[in-house]
Each structure stands twice: as C-alpha cells, then as structure tokens.
Amino acid sequence: MANSEAESRVLRLRAALDSGRWAPVKRQLASLNPSEVAKLLAALPERERNLVWEMVDPADDGQVLLHLPEDVRDGLIRQMDTAELVAAAEDLDIDDLADFVDSLPETVTREVMRALSDADRARLEAVLIHEPDTAGGLMNTDTVTVRPDVSLEVVMRYLRMRGELPAHTDALFVVDRYGVYLGRLALDRILTRDPASTVTEVMDRDSEALAVDMSERDVAQEFESSDLVSAAVVGSDRKLVGRVTVDDVVDVIRADAEHNLLSMAGVDEDEDLFAPVRRAARRRALWLGINLCSAFLAARVVGLFEATIQQVVALAVLMPIVASMGGIAANQIVALMVRGLALGQIGAGNTGALLRKEMLVALINGLLWGLVVAGVTSWWFDSPTLGFVIGLALLLNLMFAAMAGLLVPLMLRRLGLDPALAGSVIVTTITDVMGFFLFLGLGTLILL
Amino acid sequence: MANSEAESRVLRLRAALDSGRWAPVKRQLASLNPSEVAKLLAALPERERNLVWEMVDPADDGQVLLHLPEDVRDGLIRQMDTAELVAAAEDLDIDDLADFVDSLPETVTREVMRALSDADRARLEAVLIHEPDTAGGLMNTDTVTVRPDVSLEVVMRYLRMRGELPAHTDALFVVDRYGVYLGRLALDRILTRDPASTVTEVMDRDSEALAVDMSERDVAQEFESSDLVSAAVVGSDRKLVGRVTVDDVVDVIRADAEHNLLSMAGVDEDEDLFAPVRRAARRRALWLGINLCSAFLAARVVGLFEATIQQVVALAVLMPIVASMGGIAANQIVALMVRGLALGQIGAGNTGALLRKEMLVALINGLLWGLVVAGVTSWWFDSPTLGFVIGLALLLNLMFAAMAGLLVPLMLRRLGLDPALAGSVIVTTITDVMGFFLFLGLGTLILL
User: Membrane-spanning residues where (chains A, B) (predicted)?
Assistant: First the structure.
C-alpha cells in the first residue's frame, strides 16, 4: 500500500508519545526534514501536535511552519511568543518569509522587520508589495546575474569566488548595465561550452521572462508547458526583479487542485482534517445552511403538488429517482468543466459546440435510462402511464442537468467567482427543483 | 481574467479555420511549443481538431501526442499510418517513448522497436519492464555518471568533451566501478568548489536514491518534501538504473489531482471534454446506471412507508431535506478524506481520533440545523410534533453521514480501491436511504 511508510512513522511516534518517553520522539523528529515534520504534525490530533511541536528543533521552526496547512500553522503561531516567532522568521528565504508574514500578528511582523538587515528588509518589501497570487508574490530575489560581454571563463571565476548558489539555480540571468533582462545562461552550458566564448554567444535569448503581475495560475501553466526549473521575473520596464522556482510552482499546482476538489464538495480549502471540533463545525456549517435553504426550496416545489401526491402516493416514492439522476449527471459535467477551465481549454470559442455536445449526450443517456426507469416502474406499480411519466421526466431533467452543469460554472467564472462553487449545492438545487417539478407536474397533467 | 491568452488563441485559430485560410493557422501553430499545441487541440471540437492536426509540423508530432489527454491522443493515433507513427516515436526521449508505446497498436509497436538503434531498444525495454506507475516507469535512462576518485577539473574536461547535457540535469550521479550509486554531484558545486578537489570530497552522500519499484505517488511526495529537480533511481542491488525529473513529477501531481476531482464526481479521468458524443455518453452511462440502482433502492425504502405518506403527505414534502443535508455533509468529509489519504496523513494511528472528531462535528451541526429545520417546519405545517420528527431525523442522518463519509473511503482503500469512488454515488446512497428511513420511520412511530 502507498503511504505505509508515513503511516508507520505516525504510529511509532504516537506509541512513543503514549508511553511518555520523550527521547525516542526527539530522535525520530531529528531524522525528518522540515516538510516531513510538518506532515506529521498535520496528521496528529491537537493535544499530541502541541506536545510534538515543543520538541521540534527551534532552528527548523520557520521551515516547518511554512509547510503546514494554514489552519494548523495559525494554531501553533498563537502559542509562540514574539521572540520565538522572530527567531523562526530569521531562518527563512525572502519569498518564504513573505508568505509567513501574512500569518503573523501585526505586532510580530513589526518585530521581524526590525530584526532584519537593511538589505533583507528592502528585499522583503520588494516581494510584499506584489499580490501573493502573482509571479511577484511567488518570486524570490536571490537571482545571480552576469553581464553579456564577459567570457565563460570569467563567469566560472566569479562563481568560484562567490561560492554556493541559491537552491534551484539551474541558470544565471543575463542583464545589461541597467538591470534589463536579456536572457538566461544555463549552468550546463557554462560547463559544456568553450570557456573562451562570451555569454552573449552562449546564452538563451528565447526564454521569455515572466511579468511580475502574471497570475500564479498562468505561471504554473508556463512552467508546465515549457518544463522549467526556474524563470526570471521582470517589471514593466523589463528590469529583472526576481525569479520563480519550480518548488513553489509545485505548491501552486497542488493547492489549486486541492482547492477545486474541496470547493466542489463545499469545504473550505484551508480546513485541516484534524482541526479542533468547534472550528471544523463552524466552517462546514455555512454550506450546510445554504443547502438547507435550497432543500426547503425543493420542498416548497413538492408542496405545490400535495393534492396530487395524496391521490397517487407512488409519485412520492419515485420522485427521489428523478432528482438524484439529475444531480449525478450535472456533477459529472461540473467536474469536467472545472478541470477544463483550470487548464484554460474552455472559452467563448467553443462553448457553443460544448453545449450542443452535452445536450446530445444527455439526450442519449436520457433515452437509455428513461426507458429502463419506465420499464421497471411499469412493472413495479403495474402502470405503464406512470412509467411513461417518470421516463419522460428523467429525460427532461437530464437535459436540464446538462445545461446547468455547463452554464453555472461558466456564469460563476464570468462573475469572477470560483467555478468549482457550482459543485454539489448550486447545481444540485437546480436538478432537485426541476426533477420534482417535472415529475410531479407531468404526473398531475397525465395521471389525474 | 486568467487564461484569457489561451482563450484568445483558440478564438483566433477558430476564426482562421472558419474563414478557410490555412496560412494564418499554420503561422499561429508554428509559434507554439508542443505542449501549447496539445492544449489547443484538446480544446477544439473533433472536426476542427483533425484539420489542425494535419497542419502540425511532423517533427513535433511525438511531443504533441504525448501532451494530449489519452482520449484525444487515441483518436488522432487511429488516423495516422504506421510510417507517421514510427517517425513521431523516433523523436521522443526513452521515458516519453515508454508512455507513448502504451497507446500504440501492437503492430506499430513492433515497427517502432525495429526502427530504434540497439542501444535505444535496450534502454526502452529497461523502462518498459517496470510498472508505469512506479519510479521505474517514470524514469529516463539518460543519466550522466562520474567516478568518486577523479577531480572536479577532470569532470569539467569530461563534460566539455561530452557536450550538451540532458534536460533537467541539475546533478551528475556518482557510481563505483560496478555501477552502484554512491551520491550526487550538483552542477553548482562543480562550478563553485575548488577544481582540484575530488568528487568524493564534494558530492552529496545524504541524498537518497529512489527504489525502482517505489510508487509514483511516493516519488511525488519525496520530490515535494525535499524540493528535488532530479533523483537517481536504483535497483534492489543499489545499482543506478535511471533518474526521475521534476517535469514528470509535476505531471503525476496534476494527473493525481484530476483523477480525484473527476472520480469523486463519477467521471472517467481520461474523458475528454470534447470527446465525440457517442463515447462521452457511453462513459458517463456507467455511473448513471449505478446511481439508478441506488436510487431505486432509496425508492424501495420510501415505498415501505406508503401507508404513512398517504395519511401525512407533509412527510413526502419534507423528506428530500433530510436526505440532501446528509448527502452534503458526507461529501464534505469524503473530500477531506480523499485529500488526507493522498497526502498520507491518515492511517491506523489516527482514524479513531478522526472518527470521534467528525461525530462531534456532526452532533454540533445536527443540533444547530436540526433546531432550525424543526422551527421552520413547525411554523410551515403548524405541527410541533412534525418539527420534532424532522429535527431528530436530520440530527441522526448527519451522524450517519459522518460515519459513512469517513469509513467508506477508508474501506475502499483497504480493499485496494480508489477512495475517491466513495464520492457522490456510494456515500449519497447511504445518506439517502438512511435519511428516508429515519424520517419516515420516526414519522410512522410518532405521528400515527
């Protein structure tokens, strides 16, 4: 089974915790990297989590906090004093620090700013002025730059003098004397080309820099489609301001995917599976409340047909079938639309064709399952007319479901909202209401 | 708006297609990289897609096919003749070729194998013997290796002689004379350390190699937690067999996330939004059919209470509320569980704590919304007893929903199945059946 290693780690740690022996817990923690410690903490119930957190090496505090889901991070930060938080912040890269600062209380942020060197403070401010979900918010300022007119020999001498390069440096950036971005010089070219050649001869001019205000989703698509490890970020004046690295892009992709999955199901993406009961209950209550309104709306529709149901109780027995099939069909389309919109595959150019296609798919499945439902119902209630009513209602509701599943995500996006919100509640309301109305309405017309 | 560039590209291309002018279409295609061409093709309806495909530069065919969703790829491959397919295959890396070969008809695979050089054929076979969803299936065999006892000076001379390095080479791998993996030598260390030092002195011994049979999900977690760009893959004898690079890992993460999103909604992950109507209808029919069985089951339960409904029609009006609230609550938990299981956060060590927590959350929300429903119902139907019945049924159904949402994904995983299958159909069946049974059952006991 996958994940068995992670599981057995949690198990061993909990066993050690339960037995009250701290030495093995500490030993186990010391063997993990910050991201693994973060995963472990996120998987522990709150009491154990706080105990283990006390035992994490303070030098790792910053990195561990950074890798935690927001909810868990906020919980732990609330227990730390300012001195601990400042110490944790000092060990972070500028781009990580910028993320981290967002979680800190105002007063601590000021302390952290004061503790930084002037140069670091300026760099942090350079990142903080950008929206967090843009290339500027994702970037780090640790670029290594070279001039176009020097030889590779000189570049190599410079690098040896400079020492260690920042993580994920697969290329140096070539800039002119004004700091304007000209291209990139991959490390492997420095190593494989003739040392006498100049940077201009060897550098890659085709690799486009990212604009500082590019959305992080577009950044991720650019990394994916061009298989990048790092990319330069430039301001509107084409001057180099920083670089984005693939590790941060992976986080964006992961977060985006989780967001879609959770918001389709009506959960807040920041919800921590091991959050305290009160917080989890509050966060989920919202969608349940919205759904309750929508369920009452559906009940109102059923209520319109009380007299009909009184005479033909079979309608009440069968009506959940029509509604439920519509819900499933609509959610299938919503999921495909959410993926298609995230990948940038859907636009004004093809919605017409898509709608025609989905209506046809609904027609085919409506005819197929409508006939099945009609057959089973005719036999169960010994009434071909009732069979005809439910078959027709199912067919029509699947067509409505196709329209709703396709158009609601598009409309949400047009309004600047998240298309995944169409999932479960909104689209299901439409298919429930239409399902009950069609079935009971047709029943009233045809059976009475 | 995000994606607007991609959208406008599709729009422009379709306009050019509609006008029948091929020159601008070709010009636009030539300015895109293979992954962008693939995205464009995937976003076009079938007729236009085939037209555009004819115009793609044959030298890019292989790369474009590789970036397409499986469904679209298979459609295009069916139209190509063997010579074209062999030509497309020849331009691919070994790891990409291994993926590609899976999509080819048997006869073409044999042709492709014959067209390869002996060395390439041996390398392809080395990748093909591994399961596609393991490190071995993901890896490429284009490793660049060095011996531990040479100096960096010598390594640099060797690299200059060798020329261009494979894409995503951020490190060379250090192996002994038997090919056993010893560690990695990062390119930036070659550039920044004293050229007289030996590989042994400079190399990183701590970086663990991946086992060839490690699951691709674990590989992705390792890349994420250690922020890797490439990692060595070793066989059970610790001999280096290949390397995995971050671009392939990004694809795994993306595919995994899409899989969860779509399978929660009951759609096949390979389904192409622009698939031909007949294929799309067939693929979605399965879940609709399963859901129909489950809906009939729920209807059977309602049917048990026909006599009760006859006397108190309000029960029929209100019963969808109880079922729908249970469905939403259960799906919220399923989404959190699917994410938690994918991240390896859930195991035997904490399911007990999780279940207790979710039952408490359900109790709180059940009491809250149970009271609201009871109040509204008492007022609407002027019957406090009916209000009490629906409030209690809602509370109990939310508790059942919590159990189902938590335990069904765990059970599926224990059975070696995909936990995301719990979404929509399975869990909703449970909450529908329980919702109707509890509400109508309590109604029969209390109201009659």
Answer: 285-305, 311-338, 359-381, 387-408, 420-447
Sign, Cα dihedral of A381, A384, A389, A394: positive
CB atoms B324 and A428 under 8 Å:
yes
Q: Which among B328, B349, B373 has CB closest to A424?
A: B328
**DSSP bridge pairs for B239:** B180
Q: Which residues of B touch A335 (CB under 8 A)?
A: 261-262, 264-265, 267
Separation of alpha carbons B354 and B333, rounded Å:
11
Spatial CA neighbour of A323 closest among A420, A438, A444:
A438
Report the percentage of chain A scoring pLDDT > 90: 46
CB count within 10 Å of CB A58 equals 10
Average pLDDT over residues B61-77: 82
Mean pLDDT by 10 residues, chain A (448 residues): 55 73 79 82 81 84 83 81 80 77 76 80 80 87 92 94 90 94 94 94 90 91 88 93 91 86 79 78 88 93 94 94 94 89 78 90 96 96 96 97 94 88 84 96 94
Both tokens of A327, joined, read 């819900």
Of all residues in chain B, what percent carry a pLDDT higher than 70?
A: 97
To the nearest whole Å, the CA of B40 is away from the closest chain A CA by 7
pLDDT in tens, B347-401: 777 888 889 999 999 999 999 999 999 999 999 999 999 999 999 999 999 999 9
User: Chain A residues with CB inside 8 Å of B345's CB?
Assistant: 6, 39, 42-43, 273-274
The chain-wide mean pLDDT, for chain B, equals 87
Using CA atoms, how far apart are residues B349 and A11, in angstroms rounded to an integer? Answer: 5
Q: Domains of chain B, with CATH numbers?
A: 4-131 (1.25.60.10), 145-245 (3.10.580.10), 277-447 (1.10.357.20)
Distance, in Å, from the CA atom of B154 to the CA atom of B168, rounded to the nearest integer, reads 22
Q: How far is A107 from chain B (nearest CA, A)?
A: 31
Closest CA to A445 of A383, A376, A385, A377: A385
Tracing tokens 């002025």 back to the chain, one arrives at A129
